[in-house]
Write a sequence for this structure.
């Protein structure tokens, strides 16, 4: 009776809290609470922390209970009549892992011993007897050796099918799991222990000291009772609707029903859902506890249950303070050697989502409340690559709503998508984002079948596919679709020599000769490439081109088709630019073809003898802008030297060692002159996208030049110390790609999302036209954009959140692949995705997407480096990783007694490594001397635009050993796959007898081991083998080996065409080239004062623990 | 008499400042709710930034010259802030980053609005006091000298 009173008190208290959270419907739920339930609540006897959510006819609530400062979730689940545990967001189940963990016991612990981190140090056998003695052991053992979490089973040694794990009698799990790993220790216990696998369910008993009946059970390594204090949580499994539910939990007396119960349960066990995928190289592998096995088995694999079976991965770091390094096995650290893994964890429920190549969310589980979001320390957001290249057969379908107009929601302007629902026998549709009921236009009407689906569903790709492209009617145009327009702005000054620096003016006489030659050849490469691309330029019949060259004056070229030779007009008044003959500077390519070719042929020789050292970039850009502003288009700037004349001239502000580490450091990385930003903004306004090609070997202030590209949706190509002999090929390919890849012109992009959340910030190369509208004058498949979300309301009421990316653009590429007319048209590309809202932090972490997180991290860190010190940017990355890991650890640590283990959710296992790689990337690495300022800025600009998979490849490049492949006599197709085995990026992977290829998506480095057989080198390089490799380029030689290597490189290049990977040859020990090209990029090594991978992990781990 | 004129001058300057800041706030709010193109909004705001700085500097100099030390001390931090922004060339709103800094900009202007309001009330008060003093100079002498800071 007393207990009941207590309970009522609690309930009143709870009710008061519910009133605070408006979302709660209490009525029906309250009436269902029975005395047993109340008593159980009493058992927790702790403050109600969180809310109840009610779902219509079945009401169940999620409570959060604080216990010993550990937040674990307590579940009350109550249904009327039939059981219905299969709610999609069934947090009750998801909540289970933390609560059950106390019972997880020492079985797993033994497993961890067995997993072999340091077998000799602590003979696990010693612990066995004590474990058998019951719960008392828990704490003691954990003090000296951490428990393994009862998590996903990722031990590689146990890979037999799940059925093998299910002894008919509910056999003990220690027999199943640890045994293979640690046979000697386990032989004895099993014999002594009758198969009583499910003791953990006796949780309620565990609150007090466990009943004697349990103690007598000798399931030695299991110790079901686990740690007494946390076992309190167990009674939450009170719901009688849980299929597996141990009903006796409800009963106050808590009779020990272990054996009968377990045998009853046993036959129910189907394959364990949580088991399948963890064959980790890391022996983190916490074996599944019996409880989990049980649960996974008996419950249908609904969302929450999966949460139960999979918990987290962990990594054994030294548990004893002081001996930290010894605990870490570098080989066991997780490495993304498989490359980027696109998330597909949501599975069938959201099969109509767009492909992750277009839209990746940092977590596929939206937090349901502000408080939850505040405990998610990663950025919450998305990385969008709206035009990502789709493999053949997966192209986005194009839909033409000629008769009806594009179907959109009246209120929120959402486009029709697979998640809208049709009601009122097909006459209305409900918008999935704002829930408004819209009319279906007459022409779009279709009957609904018995299940409420439209009968014409299979003919409506927009209702079945997450990505579609609508042909936009005239309402979506402010003007007729523009012709594709390319404007080339070429710097023809003798580069790099700047007036005002006396030393240079003296030396210039000498330098001229050299640079001039370089310049000449550069001009040739550009001209040739442009020429060869002329035929392939998109939208061929309408394409317009124009050229301006400039040094201290600006040269316009009249290329009217009636002329035979281009006319050059020189404007030297830089302060007041005017455009002579404004009509003839832009010409239709097909009409003026011969004139343009004549111009390009003569361009290299025209400025051969130019000794003009000035470069009036600013005025030239202005002139180009004036020419282009009527039509918009793409402006390609080839800049050879620092702009020195007219508006936008730049100082040699230089890279000063003394500035680093001070508050002025960041100023080096932002545009010096506001001209560039303003010009870029103007360009964007008139639909001009700027791409900057920079070549200088001296400081060119990429930070300023890059702003032109950044705010006009373009990109930077940087070729430091351009030599046409070596870099020519790269420039040719990248320029060709720039001109011919699929491009969306005069585009705007908007991301819509459901009520209660909002995109608050965007990161990438674009300009915002309004709070959520990205203006992208020219966007292509190699550009991605990051965006961060925030919750506008404290609680999300919906169960699902929808995102819709809409890109409105002009399509001009209607030549080969596409089918329609040749005049271009407006299109809208729409990507839709849905994700569930969760109330469980663990679920958020489990659904996280490392790729998207790293991509956003990189963008944020680079942005931070523009306003703070590099050091700050790096430490902010580290700090956020630490915070997140700590938060995650707090979810599990106490129950599991993790001690010295580092734990992280499975999907985030590579995150620490990527974080390290990010801190070591060219954009953020080191300080003054580590990376040239221009290199750093160029890398920063490039990374801001990279899609996720390319970003990950850049951060953790692939390293492949190829000598064996080359030496093998035959080369089959499947062999190619075999040799593509990526190696860890550490110097230890490099064998002096080997030949390695390093590929980061931007360049190859071919590394020749010192003891590589001379044959190989001879075969590959011919006579050049003896020469210093910096002067050698890898060419085709008439040997089998050379052909094979070139074939291999070609294949690697084909797998990623966005940049051309130039081949750098490096011989072992050849400094400083080896260091520059390869060694500094081996991110796992300690280089120049940065920590290596294992130190980094230890460091993270320490910080995680410090205030955990 | 002179002090009344000076205070009226201050009031006018203050009115100008208030108008400028209020206008900027208006533009920013319009921008936020997508009523205004960012190019137009920033152009509108930037046009009035230097006049605002000048007016504010004039105001503080006026206070200094007329010997209103305490009010001058109240005004001078803002002047210094303006000078700092100007020297760092951060005074103008950057159209490429306007949305990112929207909230900060708004906050700064709200604070400025508050400061100007304070000055405005002081001015009104002083003018009122001045006018009263003008009309019945003898009775209010005590009061006005009390208010003379």
């Amino acid at each position: 009776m007393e207990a009941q009173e207590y309970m009522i008190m609690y309930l009143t208290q709870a009710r008061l809290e519910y009133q605070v959270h408006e979302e709660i419907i209490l009525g029906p739920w309250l009436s269902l609470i029975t005395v047993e339930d109340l008593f159980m609540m009493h058992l927790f006897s702790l403050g109600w922390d969180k809310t109840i959510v009610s779902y219509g006819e079945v009401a169940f609530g999620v409570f959060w209970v604080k216990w010993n400062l550990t937040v674990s979730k307590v579940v009350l689940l109550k249904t009327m009549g039939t059981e219905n545990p299969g709610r999609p967001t069934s947090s009750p189940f998801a909540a289970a892992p933390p609560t059950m963990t106390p019972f997880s016991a020492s079985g797993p612990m033994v497993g961890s011993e067995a997993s072999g981190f340091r077998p000799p140090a602590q003979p696990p056998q010693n612990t066995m007897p004590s474990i058998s003695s019951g719960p008392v052991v828990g704490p003691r053992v954990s003090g000296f050796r951490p428990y393994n979490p009862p998590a996903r089973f990722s031990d590689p040694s146990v890979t037999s099918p799940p059925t093998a794990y299910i002894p008919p009698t509910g056999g003990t799990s220690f027999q199943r799991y640890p045994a293979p790993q640690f046979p000697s220790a386990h032989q004895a216990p099993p014999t002594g222990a009758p198969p009583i696998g499910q003791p953990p369910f006796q949780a309620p008993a565990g609150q007090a000291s466990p009943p004697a009946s349990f103690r007598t059970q000798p399931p030695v390594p299991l110790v079901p009772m686990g740690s007494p204090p946390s076992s309190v949580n167990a009674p939450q499994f009170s719901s009688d609707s849980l299929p597996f539910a141990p009903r006796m939990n409800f009963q106050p007396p808590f009779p020990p029903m272990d054996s009968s119960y377990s045998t009853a349960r046993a036959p129910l066990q189907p394959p364990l859902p949580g088991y399948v995928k963890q064959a980790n190289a890391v022996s983190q592998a916490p074996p599944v506890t019996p409880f989990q096995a049980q649960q996974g088995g008996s419950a249908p694999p609904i969302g929450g249950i999966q949460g139960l079976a999979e918990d987290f991965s962990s990594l054994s770091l030294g548990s004893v303070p002081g001996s930290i390094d010894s605990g870490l096995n570098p080989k066991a650290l997780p490495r993304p050697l498989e490359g980027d893994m696109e998330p597909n964890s949501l599975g069938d429920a959201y099969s109509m989502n767009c492909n992750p190549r277009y839209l990746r969310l940092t977590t596929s589980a939206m937090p349901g409340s502000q408080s939850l979001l505040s405990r998610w320390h990663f950025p919450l957001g998305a990385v969008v690559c709206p035009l990502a290249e789709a493999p053949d057969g997966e192209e986005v379908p194009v839909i033409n709503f000629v008769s009806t107009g594009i179907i959109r929601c009246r209120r929120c302007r959402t486009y029709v998508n697979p998640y809208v629902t049709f009601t009122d026998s097909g006459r209305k549709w409900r918008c999935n984002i704002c829930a408004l009921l819209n009319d279906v236009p007459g022409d779009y009407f279709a009957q609904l079948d018995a299940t409420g689906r439209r009968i014409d569903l299979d003919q409506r790709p927009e209702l079945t596919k997450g990505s579609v492209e609508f042909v936009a009617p005239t309402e979506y145009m402010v003007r007729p679709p523009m012709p594709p327009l390319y404007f080339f702005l070429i710097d023809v000054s003798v580069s790099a020599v700047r007036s005002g620096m006396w030393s240079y003016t003296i030396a210039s006489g000498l330098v001229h000769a050299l640079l001039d030659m370089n310049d000449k050849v550069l001009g040739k490469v550009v001209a040739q490439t442009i020429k060869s691309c002329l035929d392939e330029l998109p939208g061929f019949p309408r394409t317009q081109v124009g050229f301006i060259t400039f040094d201290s004056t600006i040269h316009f070229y009249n290329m009217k088709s009636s002329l035979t030779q281009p006319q050059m007009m020189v404007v030297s008044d830089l302060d007041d630019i005017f455009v002579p003959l404004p009509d003839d500077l832009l010409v239709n390519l097909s009409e003026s073809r011969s004139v343009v070719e004549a111009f390009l042929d003569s361009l290299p020789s025209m400025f051969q003898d130019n000794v003009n050292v000035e470069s009036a970039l600013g005025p030239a850009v202005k002139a180009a802008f004036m020419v282009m502003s009527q039509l918009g288009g793409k402006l390609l700037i080839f800049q050879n030297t620092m702009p020195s004349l007219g508006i936008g001239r730049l100082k040699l502000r230089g890279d000063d060692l003394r500035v680093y580490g001070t508050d002025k450091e960041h100023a080096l990385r932002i545009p010096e002159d506001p001209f560039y930003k303003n010009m870029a903004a103007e360009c964007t306004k008139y639909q001009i996208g700027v791409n900057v090609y920079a070549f200088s070997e001296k400081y060119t202030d990429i930070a300023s030049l890059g702003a032109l590209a950044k705010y006009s949706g373009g990109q930077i190509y940087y070729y430091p110390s351009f030599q046409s002999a070596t870099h020519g090929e790269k420039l040719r390919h990248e320029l060709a790609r720039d001109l011919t890849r699929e491009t969306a012109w005069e585009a705007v992009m908007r991301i819509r999302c459901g009520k209660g959340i909002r995109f608050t910030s965007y990161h990438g190369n674009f300009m915002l036209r309004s709070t959520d509208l990205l203006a992208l004058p020219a966007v292509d498949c190699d550009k991605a954009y990051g965006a961060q979300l925030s919750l506008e309301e404290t609680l999300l009421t919906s169960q699902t959140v929808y995102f819709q990316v809409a890109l409105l653009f002009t399509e001009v590429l209607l030549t080969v692949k596409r089918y329609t007319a040749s005049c271009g048209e407006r299109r809208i590309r729409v990507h839709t995705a849905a994700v569930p809202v969760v109330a469980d932090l663990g679920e958020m972490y489990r659904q996280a997407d490392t790729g998207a997180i790293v991509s956003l991290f990189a963008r944020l860190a680079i942005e931070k480096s523009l306003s703070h010190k590099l050091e700050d940017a790096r430490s902010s990355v580290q700090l956020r990783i630490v915070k997140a890991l700590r938060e995650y650890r707090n979810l599990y640590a106490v129950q599991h007694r993790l001690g010295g283990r580092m734990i992280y959710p499975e999907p985030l296992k590579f995150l620490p490594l990527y974080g390290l790689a990010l801190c070591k990337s060219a954009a953020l690495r080191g300080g003054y001397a580590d990376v040239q300022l221009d290199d750093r800025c160029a890398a920063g600009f490039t990374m801001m635009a990279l899609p996720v998979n390319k970003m990950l490849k850049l951060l953790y490049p692939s390293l492949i050993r190829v000598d064996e492949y080359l030496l093998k006599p035959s080369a089959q197709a499947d062999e190619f796959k075999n040799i593509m085995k990526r190696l860890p990026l550490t110097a230890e992977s490099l064998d002096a007898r080997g030949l390695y290829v390093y590929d980061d998506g931007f360049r190859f480095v071919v590394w020749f081991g010192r003891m590589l057989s001379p044959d190989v080198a001879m075969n590959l390089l011919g006579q050049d083998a003896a020469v210093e490799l910096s002067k050698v380029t890898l060419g085709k030689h008439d040997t089998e080996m050379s052909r094979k290597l070139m074939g291999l490189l070609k294949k690697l290049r084909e797998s990623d065409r966005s940049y051309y990977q130039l081949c750098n040859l490096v011989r072992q020990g050849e400094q400083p080239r080896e260091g520059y090209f390869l060694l500094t990029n081996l991110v796992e090594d300690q280089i120049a004062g940065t920590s290596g991978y294992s130190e980094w992990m230890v460091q993270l781990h320490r910080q995680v623990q410090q205030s955990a | 008499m002179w002090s009344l004129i000076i205070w009226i001058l201050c009031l006018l300057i203050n009115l100008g400042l208030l108008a400028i800041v209020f206008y900027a706030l208006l533009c920013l709010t319009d921008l936020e709710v997508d009523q205004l193109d960012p190019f137009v909004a920033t152009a509108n705001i930037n046009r009035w930034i230097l006049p605002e700085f000048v007016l504010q500097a004039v105001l503080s100099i006026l206070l200094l010259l007329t010997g209103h030390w305490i009010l001058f001390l109240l005004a001078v931090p803002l002047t210094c802030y303006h000078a700092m922004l100007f020297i760092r060339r951060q005074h103008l709103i950057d159209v490429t980053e306007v949305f990112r800094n929207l909230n900060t900009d708004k906050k700064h202007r709200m604070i400025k609005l508050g400061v100007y309001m304070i000055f405005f009330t002081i001015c009104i008060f002083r003018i009122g006091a001045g006018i009263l003093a003008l009309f019945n100079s003898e009775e209010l002498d005590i009061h006005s000298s009390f208010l003379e800071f």
